[in-house]
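Handout, page 2. Input:
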Amino acid sequence: MIRIIIADDHPIVRVGQKVVIEASGKCKVVGEADGPDQLLALLKCTPCDVIVTDFAMPGDQQVDGYGLLGLLHRQYPKVPMIVVTMFANVATLRAAMAHGAKSVLAKSASARELPQAIHSVYQGRTFISECLRVQLEQACVAQPTQAPQLSGKEQEVVRLLASGLTVTEIAARANRSISTISKQKSTAMQRLCISTDVDLFAYARDVGMVP
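Output:
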């Protein structure tokens, strides 16, 4: 029996995950957490074989997102992590796997993918949600586990955009032309394999560029 701990701040999501996970009779949910603090406390006293966690959850003491993944990977390096996220894009995939995740699933994915992911990571393999595999093929990303790298100016532009400034306002603040800022934004999005501003802002929030 594969022992699973699930973490998500939405109770109805945890209920659905538990039903899907235990349907085959080969896996057992041994603990549930509603955020980073509860997850870390649970792991200290509840042995498990796989962690299934949301990507962005509110916490009082502990960080979420990539910070949580890195902390879990350092403290429990032998326990594979599956990240289930609504921010299913190549940038999130690459960064999550660079921080120790063995699988990234879209919350919109088919119910069959979660059991498949659990068995894959339990056996030491990685598993990527089908919609993300399509994005990877379209982006021609050769190394999906390598974290995306932005230049300092590209990071600055992304951070300011996510803070609410327009391209014109950033150009005035940084003393650069509007076309230069637009180009840096476009290049950053290409490096991150992100196609929409919504995903770009979500990425900036998740990596800690903005609160």
